[in-house]
Specification:
Layout: H1 3-17, H2 26-32, H3 37-64, H4 67-87, H5 91-124, H6 130-158, H7 161-180, H8 196-208, H9 214-240, H10 248-265, H11 274-293, H12 297-324, H13 331-360, H14 362-383
Length: about 400
C-alpha cells in the first residue's frame, strides 16, 4: 500500500467533515436570533473554554487508545453541534450548542496532524514528506469548506440560514464511515505503556523540552490565535460596511481557500531564510495596517486573506518543528496540549475583541489583532535559524 492510498480514507473523512454549509452565514443567523457583537465574543469564549479542558485528555486518549477512534468521536461531536445549532432559537440555546463545537475542535485538531506525521514515518522512514502531506490534508479540508461556503451562501439566500445547519448534518455522519476505513499508524503503541499519571508527566516534559520548545509552542499558539480571530471576527468588518448576504459565501470561500493554499505552499517556503521571512512579515504588517486604518469590503477581504494565508504557512512550518522534536508515544498529547494552550490564549482575546467591536467598531479590535501578529513576528525571528529540532529525550517516571 502506498502512502497516498493509505491516506485516502483520511482524506475522504476530512472532506466530508469540512462540508459545513452553515459556516459562512453563521453570523447572519446569530443576528437573526438576537446576538450582538459582545455576545458573539462570549460565544467564541464559551467554546474556547471547552477546548483546552477536553483537548489535553483527548490527546492522551488518542495516544493510549486509538487516534482513529478519536477522529470518529470528533465527527459525532460535529454532528451534535450542527443539529443543535440549527434547532437553536436564542442566545442561550446556541451557546449551548457550540460547546459541542469546542469538543469537535479538541478531538480533531492535534489528532489529525499526529496521524499524518506517524503515517509518513511508517511508510517512508522519515518526516521529509510531512509538510507536503499535512498540507494536502489542509488543502482538502479547504476545498470542502470553500465548496460548502459557496453553496451555503446560496442556500441561505434561497431559503434561510437555519436550513444550512440541517443540510450539513449528513456530511458529518459520512465522515465517520471514512475514518473507520482508515488504517491508523501504530508507532505510538510499540513501546510499553505506563500508568496514566506517568503518561501525563511524560507529555508535559516533552512539551517543556528543557526550554528548547518554548519558542515553538508560543509561535504555534499565536499563529492559531491570529487565524481564529480572523475567522471569528473578520466578518464583522464586512457587516460594518453592509455587505449583501449573498456575498458572504464567496468571501468565506476565499478565506477558507487560503488555508488550503497555505498548506500547498508551506513546504516550498524556507522560513529560515531571511529574505523569505522578511517578505512574510511585511505582508502581515500591511494586512494589519489595512484593518486598523480602514477601507472598503474589498480591502478588508484582501487583508484577511493575507493574514490567513501567511499564518497557514507559518503554522505548518512550526508544526514540523514540534513533531520532529517529540516521540510518537506522546505526539498527539503534545500536539493537543499546544492546541489547548492556544485556546486558552484565544479565550480572553475573543472576549476583549467582542467588547471592542461592540463599543468602538472593528478597527479597534484590529489593534488587538495587530499586537498578536507583532508578537508572532518576534518569535519567528527567534526561530529563523532553525530547520529542525533534535528529539526530546524522555525518561518515563512511574
Amino acid at each position: 500500500m502506498t502512502l497516498t492510498s493509505r491516506l485516502l480514507p483520511l482524506h475522504l473523512g476530512v472532506l466530508a467533515q469540512g462540508f459545513m454549509l452553515w459556516l459562512p452565514v453563521e453570523k447572519l443567523f446569530l443576528s437573526e436570533i438576537g446576538f450582538d457583537a459582545a455576545q458573539i465574543g462570549l460565544m467564541a469564549a464559551a467554546y474556547a473554554a471547552v477546548v483546552p479542558v477536553v483537548e489535553v485528555f483527548s490527546g492522551i486518549l488518542a495516544d493510549r487508545w486509538s487516534r482513529r477512534g478519536v477522529l470518529v468521536l470528533s465527527s459525532v461531536a460535529l454532528s451534535v453541534c450542527t443539529l443543535a445549532g440549527g434547532l437553536s432559537t436564542g442566545v442561550t440555546s446556541y451557546i449551548a450548542s457550540v460547546l459541542a463545537l469546542g469538543v469537535y475542535f479538541a478531538l480533531f485538531s492535534g489528532t489529525v496532524d499526529a496521524v499524518v506525521y506517524d503515517t509518513v514515518l511508517e511508510e517512508t522512514g522519515g518526516s521529509g514528506e510531512f509538510e507536503r502531506r499535512v498540507g494536502r490534508v489542509r488543502s482538502l479540508e479547504a476545498v470542502a469548506l470553500v465548496t460548502s461556503s459557496l453553496a451555503g451562501g446560496w442556500v441561505a439566500e434561497l431559503s434561510s440560514p437555519r436550513v444550512t445547519y440541517f443540510l450539513s448534518v449528513p456530511f458529518a455522519l459520512l465522515s465517520i464511515v471514512a475514518y473507520l476505513r482508515f488504517a491508523e499508524p501504530v508507532l505510538h503503541r510499540r513501546s510499553e505503556r505506563g500508568t496514566l499519571r506517568a503518561h501525563l508527566g511524560t507529555t508535559w516534559r516533552a512539551m517543556a523540552g528543557g526550554g528548547r520548545l518554548v519558542p515553538v509552542v508560543l509561535a504555534a499558539m499565536l499563529s492559531a490565535t491570529v487565524t481564529q480571530l480572523v475567522f471569528e471576527f473578520g466578518p464583522l468588518w464586512l457587516v460594518a460596511v453592509a455587505l449583501p448576504a449573498v456575498l458572504y459565501g464567496p468571501y468565506w470561500a476565499v478565506l477558507e481557500s487560503m488555508l488550503g493554499l497555505g498548506g500547498l505552499l508551506a513546504g516550498r517556503f524556507a522560513l529560515h531564510r531571511l529574505p523569505v521571512l522578511a517578505g512574510l512579515l511585511a505582508l502581515l504588517a500591511g494586512a494589519c495596517a489595512v484593518l486598523v486604518t480602514g477601507g472598503g469590503a474589498v480591502w478588508f477581504t484582501v487583508a484577511q486573506v493575507v493574514l490567513v494565508l501567511a499564518t497557514a504557512v507559518v503554522t505548518i512550518h512550526v508544526l514540523r518543528l514540534l513533531h520532529d522534536a517529540v516521540p510518537s508515544t506522546v505526539r498527539t498529547g503534545v500536539a493537543s496540549g499546544v492546541s489547548a494552550l492556544s485556546w486558552l490564549v484565544f479565550l480572553p482575546v475573543a472576549l476583549l475583541s467582542g467588547v471592542l467591536v461592540r463599543d468602538a467598531g472593528p478597527r479597534a479590535a484590529g489593534w488587538l489583532l495587530a499586537g498578536c501578529v507583532a508578537a508572532l513576528a518576534v518569535l519567528l525571528v527567534v526561530l529563523k535559524p532553525r530547520t529542525r529540532l533534535p528529539e526530546v529525550q524522555l525518561v518515563t517516571r512511574t
